[in-house]
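Hey L., structure's done. Input below.
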Amino acid sequence: MKTKYIWLLAGLIGFTACQNDDDSITASPAPALTVGTADFSNFVSVGNSLTAGFADGALYKVAQENSIPSIMAQQFALAGGGSFTQPLMNDNTGGLLLGGTQITPNRFVFNGSGPAPLETVIGPVSPTTDLLVNNPTGPFNNMGVPGAKSFHLLAPGYGNLGNLSAGLANPYFVRMTGTTPDASVLQMAMAQTPSFFSLWIGNNDVLGYALSGGDGSDPISPSAMFDGAYAALVGTLTNGGAKGVVANIPYVTTIPHFTTVPHNPVPLNIANANALNQAYAQYNGGLLLAAQNNLIDAEEVAKRTIVFSEGEENAMVLIDENLTDLSMSIGLPSYRQATQDDLFVLTLSPLIPQGYGTQIQLEDKWVLTPEEQLEIKTATDAFNATIQSTATSAGLAFFDANSLMQQLANGGVASGSYILTSDLVTGGGFSLDGVHPTSRGHALMANEMLKAIDVAYGSNFEASENLVDISNYNTNYSPLLQ
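Output:
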C-alpha cells in the first residue's frame, strides 16, 4: 500500500550578520511586557477539543497541560494573569470510563509505520479516569469540551450524567459540571466573571459531517442556528466588559485526516489485476448498455468504467450517489474509481489491505466527494464570515486559523528553527489523529493568538519577546508515558 508520509530532511540554516567597523554588534534590549487595554487577571477559555487539548484521538493529561489556552495563560501570568485550572484527566492513556466500562478509546501512538492504538503497541491498558469515581473539582478556566458544536455551549443538561445514555450529554462535560449538572458551558464560564476570554467554536459544526464522509449521519449545522448561537456566545461573554480573542474554522482540506490516504493506494500483480477486471466486466458492460439506451452519455461511461492494471497505483472503487441512478432501470450500482479530487478519511487506511476499495466498494462514510467538499466549504465560509463580522463588531482580537492551516498544508510555517507542516507523523503540526494539533502545534497557535491580541489591544507579547519557543513542546509522546 502506498503511503503519503514524507520523511523530512533536516537542514542547517546559516545566519549572516552585518558587522560594524569595530566588529561588534550591540543589540537593543526588548521592551518590557505591557498589556495595553487588556486585563488578563481572570482568563477563561471556551471551545471544543482544540481548546481542551485533545490530541492523538484522545484527551490525556500531558496534552491538556500543553493546550493552547494553558500556554497562553502561562504568558498572561507574566502580565498580571492569575491561575489557570483545567479539568485534567487522571493519566496519559486517554481512555474514559463509566463505572469501570471504557466509553472512549485510548490515545494513538506511533508504531514505526503509522498511527496505532496504544494497546496494540504496549499491550493491555487500564485507564483510570472514571466519570462515576473521580471527577475533578472546578471552577475551570479551560471550558473546552471535546465534540461540542456551537449550540452545545448554550445547552442546559449537556453535562448531566442522566442525559448521557440518550446522547444529550457529553462525557467530558459531565466531568466538569459537579454540583450543577444542568448548567451550560457558557453559564459555567460566566460564573467566573472572566476579564479576558478565548472562544474557538464552530469546527465541529462542519467537521462532524466531514468525519462521517458526508453520509448524513452528522449533518452540518444550519446557518441560522450557528449564527444565533455565536451571537449569543459573544454577546454574553462581552456583556460584563471582558475582552477576548476568537478564532475561525479551518477548511477540512488542510488537515491530514483527509489528505493522507491517496485515491490510488492499491498495489496489484498481473493476476490480481486480471481477476478484478473480470469481476467488474459485467458492470462495465452494463454501462455500455445504459449508453445505448441513452440513460447516460459517453462522458459518464468513461467516468464510471473500472479498470485495474499491474502496478502500485490503482485507484479505489467507491459508491457515488451523484452519478446517474441506474439501479431501477437496469439494476446497475453507482460505482466509479476514485480521482485525486476525492478525499478519504484516515480511518480507511488499515482497511485497504483487506480489500476495501477493490472487492469491497467504498460507502459514503469513507470518502468526501467533490460535491460534499463544496458543501463543507460553503458552510465553512458562511460560518467564518459570521465569526469575523461578530469579532469586528465586538472589538475582539481575531485569529485567522484557517489561513494558518492553509500555510501548514502548503509548504509549512516557520517558527524559530522549525518548519511545521500538516504532513501526518512527520510534519510536527498535527497529532496522530490527523485532526488535532500536537503540543508543538498548540504552541504555534498560542503564539498566533498572542500576536492577534497584540494587534487588537496594544499589548506587546511579540515585541517584548514573550512568545513561547515552540521547540520546547513535543510533537509526539512515548507509548510508555504514564
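Confidence is low (pLDDT under 50) at residues 1-23. The CA atoms of residues 51 and 144 lie 5 Å apart.

-- N.
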